[in-house]
Structures are given as structure tokens and as C-alpha cells.
Specification:
With 328 residues, this protein is α/β, with parallel strands linked by helices. It has three domains: 107 residues, 3-Layer(bba) Sandwich (FAD/NAD(P)-binding domain); 57 residues, no CATH class; 95 residues. Helix content is 29%, strand content 22%. Strands 1-9-8-7 form a four-stranded mixed β-sheet. Strand 2, helix 1 and strand 3 form a beta-alpha-beta unit. It is globular, with a radius of gyration of 21 Å.
Length: 328
């Protein structure tokens, strides 16, 4: 492909101790921890809000928060604080409860005594703003990490783009919480990409419908029939959840592709919206429970389950999670 040579002098807009790139759950945790330990911290995010999976994709469950066989938390600290800030649990109770973390209805029926830590994305945005600002983190939203400048084997400068154009941030330390290892990859770090990536998902939310165990089964039956008739392609679940009792969030869309490929990501957004509307119309036609249903919204972005995986000095394992292993 043709190339151009582009050179420009950029203003250095900040020189924090720590720059956190991305304010999803990992980025929030990193930024808050660093700030509370006395570092000057700046966090940037391409969206207009923090929250990652919860807010960018309309997530509803704290996946990875508990060991599903026991329902007991495998992480605590800030996770407990966020649950308390949002009123999901009473102060001091989070660590003593058992959870059905992903809301899978099979598990909910098996363990009705377990808490499902559901939270509305809008509430999560506010709680994220509060915990970051109150911890002393300097935030820049609508700011896309675009490149890095290396000094030998360390990142000297991070180039970002926003309404000021291209600007530079020169931190002492950089934390890559982009979700796709963007900073690490541009810095030349080793990473892995699976030969067959898990599909992306565009979650969506339907209003004026009351979620029940039976309705979940009916929705699944409609999709199974439609798939057998060639009306829809790949899908998962469906895994429905509710925020208010009169709306349903659906995790069901499955679109192939690599989120680090702009064309794949674009196609996932377009196909995801098309599939979401097709499913909604199938349910509305077949199920009386959807008589007054209204398509509220789809997630701001299609979510990626898997892309680059940084090859670090130590790589977390499934057993580490199950046993709550702490590093020396």
C-alpha cells in the first residue's frame, strides 16, 4: 500500500507518574490503586465515560469476580467498594455473600439463594467517575491512544488524539488497560493471538418486557427455530438479564472477527445491529410477552472477548484465579 512520511512537533500536555490507557475495570483498578498510593495519575479513554465492558457494551455481570462452582469471590478490594457504591450490597457484606455472577438462568435456578450483582450501566458510569475523581485521578475522555515513542526498551512518550489533535503525554510509567494490548504491541512487546478467536458480541436492551425463567426458554426456542430455517446465523444463549424488572438486556449476538482489525470491528458493529433487530422482530412476532416491547438501545460498541494477549514475565492461569493466588 502507498505510504506518506508525516512529521509534526507535538505539545506535551502531561507528565504524570503513571499513565493508564483505558478505563475499563482493569484501568479503573490500576488508576485508583496508583493514585491512592501517592502517585500522580492520568487515565485516558476513547469513550466519553469509564467502565469498559459494563458501559461500552452494556454488560450486567461481574464475570471473573467469583469462582462459579462455589459462588465465592476470588477478588475483593475495589470490586467490593464498587458494589457498595452502587447499592448492590450493603456496606461490609460483599465478601461474605455467594454470587451467581453471570446470571445464567440454569445456575440461578440451581442456586436461588445466591446474589446476582446486577447494576445499570448508567449507575456504573457515575460510580466510576466518583471513585476515579475522589481518588485523585486526572481524566481525559474522548482521547484515543495512537502511538508510542520508545527510549531503548521503555515507553518514553504516548501519543494520543482528541479534539486538540495529536498531543503527547510523557509518563514515568505506562499501564496498558486498552483491552487489546495496543500500547504493548506498538512498544514491541511480545503477544499472542489465538488461531481461532472467540466471536465478538453486540449486546442490546429491550424495554416493557418482564423477564422470567419461562420467557428465557421461549426466546431460546424462537431462535433455535429461526436458525434451523436459515433466518439467523451464529448466536449464543440467549443469556438475558434485567436491570429494572421491566427491561431485558440480551447477550446473544455472535460475530466473527478480530477487534484489532478496523474492518472486522466495523463489520461486527453492522452485523450485530442487523442481527439484534432480526431477533427482536422474531420475538415480537412469536411471543405475546413482547406485545408492548420496545427496542431501547444496543451497546455503544461491539465487545471483544479475545484479541492480543501480552506475553509477560508472568502469565496468569486459570488455576491462579480459582485459588486466588497471590504473587510474592
Amino acid at each position: 500500500m502507498p505510504v506518506i512520511q508525516y512529521t509534526k512537533s507535538l505539545p506535551i500536555v502531561a507528565e504524570p507518574d503513571v499513565l493508564v490507557c483505558g478505563t475499563g475495570l482493569a484501568g479503573i483498578g490500576a488508576a485508583v490503586a496508583a493514585a491512592r498510593n501517592g502517585a500522580s495519575v492520568m487515565a485516558v479513554d476513547r469513550m466519553g465515560f469509564a467502565g469498559g465492558f459494563f458501559t461500552n457494551i452494556i454488560g450486567s455481570a461481574f464475570d471473573g469476580f467469583v469462582y462459579e462452582e462455589t459462588g465465592k469471590p476470588v477478588v475483593g478490594g475495589l470490586v467490593f467498594e464498587m458494589l457498595e457504591r452502587m447499592g448492590v450490597v450493603e456496606p461490609g457484606q460483599a465478601g461474605s455473600l455467594s454470587y451467581n455472577v453471570n446470571g445464567d438462568f440454569t445456575e440461578v435456578e440451581k442456586h436461588p439463594d445466591r446474589v446476582i450483582p446486577r447494576t445499570d450501566p448508567e449507575l456504573f458510569k457515575k460510580a466510576s467517575d466518583d471513585v476515579l475523581i475522589q481518588s485523585g485521578v486526572s481524566l481525559l475522555f474522548h482521547t484515543q491512544v495512537s502511538d508510542v515513542i520508545m527510549d531503548s526498551d521503555r515507553v518514553d512518550t504516548v501519543i494520543v488524539s482528541n479534539k486538540d489533535g495529536l498531543v503527547a503525554i510523557r509518563p514515568k510509567n505506562v499501564i496498558d488497560a486498552t483491552g487489546d494490548a495496543d500500547v504493548a504491541a506498538w512498544a514491541g512487546c511480545s503477544y499472542e493471538v489465538a488461531e481461532s478467536l472467540q466471536p465478538m458480541s453486540l449486546h442490546f436492551r429491550i424495554g416493557f418486557v418482564e423477564l422470567t425463567f419461562e420467557l428465557r426458554r421461549k426466546c431460546a426456542a424462537v431462535l433455535e427455530k429461526a436458525r434451523s430455517e436459515g433466518k439467523i446465523g451464529l448466536y449464543g444463549g440467549p443469556w438475558p438479564a434485567t436491570f429494572s424488572g421491566r427491561d431485558i438486556y440480551f447477550n446473544v449476538i455472535r460475530t466473527p472477527g478480530n477487534a484489532t482489525n478496523p474492518k472486522d470491528w466495523t463489520n461486527a458493529e453492522i452485523q450485530g445491529r442487523r442481527d439484534a433487530w432480526t431477533m427482536f422482530e422474531l420475538w415480537k412476532e412469536a411471543l405475546p410477552e413482547f406485545k408492548d416491547a420496545y427496542f431501547f438501545t444496543s451497546g455503544p460498541t461491539a465487545g471483544s472477548r479475545e484479541s492480543r494477549r501480552i506475553v509477560g514475565d508472568y502469565m496468569l492461569t486459570g488455576n491462579d484465579i480459582r485459588t486466588s493466588k497471590r504473587q510474592d
